[in-house]
Give the backbone structure.
Amino acid sequence: MSFREVPGVLLVGSDEQSVRGICNRTGKPIDGAILVIDALSPDRYDAIVGSAAVICARGGPTGHMQSLCRSRGIPVLRIDPLELDALADDVTIRLDRESVLLGRAEPATQPPPFPSADLDDVESICVVISDSADIQSINALRPRVEQANSYFIREEFICFAAGLSPIDSLRAGIGEAERYGAEVASELCSMADELLPGQRLVMRLLDLRSDDAAQITTGAHVDDEPNPELGLHGARWLLNERHYPHAFQSLRTHVREHLGANADRISFAVPFINDRDEFLRLRRSLDLGDDTPLGVFVETPAAVHAAADFCAAGAGELFVGTKDLAQFYLAADRNNHRVSAAYQTRHPAVLAALRQAVETGRDAGVPVHVFALGADVDHYLRHLPTRRLMMCTAELRRLAA
């Protein structure tokens, strides 16, 4: 049977060289199908995680839902929007050629090359996960990756997986906010039950941009923002949302009740924060005592320059969010493929920022974890003074193979 090849750009790779399946244009879950969608979004979470692959028309390689796919090993190919309507029935995504074949075609047989890196050079890996299954898959690797000593989960990913609507709950009163916190705690405790001795779990506090929040909120009003990426989210949103502290206290109470003496295996980190003032105000808002550790995500230029202040103010550890940091340093939207050439995770300015954050933490005796895409691991190990990385689940599995 004849076929036509449509060129594209591979946003997220996988262990396979090709993926063949039936196109799913419904936006609903169809296990093993290839999801065809204009753009990846939180309201399509179930459809995304059940897919063998995704073909989209918009977005960059490091968007939030692309990160979910990277963790799960779900390949994502972006094609010209004008070609999207041509996708129907059977298609084959050729990851090695960054294209999609319309019609039945013989799949490729050789796995695509993957950048190599010596994991022996890594002291610690904080594995980016989306659920308990990711912890199980890493801990099941043989030989075991001993450096995988912590796991990282976004609160919003817990919401997507558990079908929670955080804005609706938080704005329905204290009781609903507390119930929401308890449900998040239940999910966290299930993940903690999968940890091996010596491992821990870090949750990044809720960081929903208004455009993402609007897609999973049904009852509460979400204000439109002209530029959600630079809008009311992260630490500034947490300080503004009056019932979030009730949800967080409920979460911590349920974690302590379930885990007891092991409750300290779960810790928390603040997203999208700029300075010491925000950090201290948030600690007070969440009613955290001086003996309760709280990590900080360094993902804005201001946060890089405030890293020493965060350490002095009691930050337990720093997590360098390379994907956001790159877009802010280079003024290149990571979700806009039109500026993808300008978005460079190895740009000298980005590397200088990463180096400054690592050295600041080292001087203060505070651990610093740098997020690295699989393709950047070896480069970062050779050019940055760090041996502590954050990596997505599927990419770590590929490097460990």
Residues 4-102 form a domain with the Glucose Oxidase; domain 1 fold (CATH 3.50.30.10). The first strand starts at residue 4 and ends at 12.
